[in-house]
Structures are given as C-alpha cells and as structure tokens.
C-alpha cells in the first residue's frame, strides 16, 4: 500500500483510469460483437450498418491507446473481409 501522499494520490488516479479504460475496452468489444452477431445471422445489411458504427469507435480507442493501432486495423480488416465474403455468398 502507498504510504506517501503523492503515492496515495497516484494509486487513486491509477484505479480511476483503469476503470475508465476498462469501460472503453468493453464498449469496443460490444461494437465488434454486434457486427459478429449480424454476420452469424447472415444479415448483410445489419452487418454493414454495425460495421459502419464500429469503425469510428475502434479508431477512436486506438488513438487513445486503449487498444493497439495494429489490433484496431486487424479487427477492421477481418470484419470487413467477413462482410465481403457474406455479400459474395449472397450474390452467388
């Protein structure tokens, strides 16, 4: 446990930031799950709208450092590839 006043303050700030960052990470996961649910339901329009809503959230969290930029790019790329594959399967 922290003993000095400055260490106590830092511990309080760290806990506040940790809980805030956890809620932001949870929000990103929720947006990603919405796209995945639409893909699993084979609903192309719903998947596209969920993806359009998820992209700015993913980018914003990458800019804030909540998730790594490469992880954000990987999520966007994979989700987009799944949507594209679903669209091609529907067209065929």
From TrEMBL:
Membrane-spanning ranges: none
Q: Which UniProt keywords apply?
A: Ribonucleoprotein, Ribosomal protein, RNA-binding, rRNA-binding
SUPFAM superfamilies (UniProt xref): Ribosomal protein S20 (SSF46992)
The record ties this protein, via InterPro entries, to: Ribosomal_bS20, Ribosomal_bS20_sf
Spans annotated as Disordered? 1-23
Extract one GO cellular component term from the record. Answer: ribosome
Family to which this protein belongs: Belongs to the bacterial ribosomal protein bS20 family.
As for what it does, the entry says:
Binds directly to 16S ribosomal RNA.
Q: What is this protein called?
A: Small ribosomal subunit protein bS20
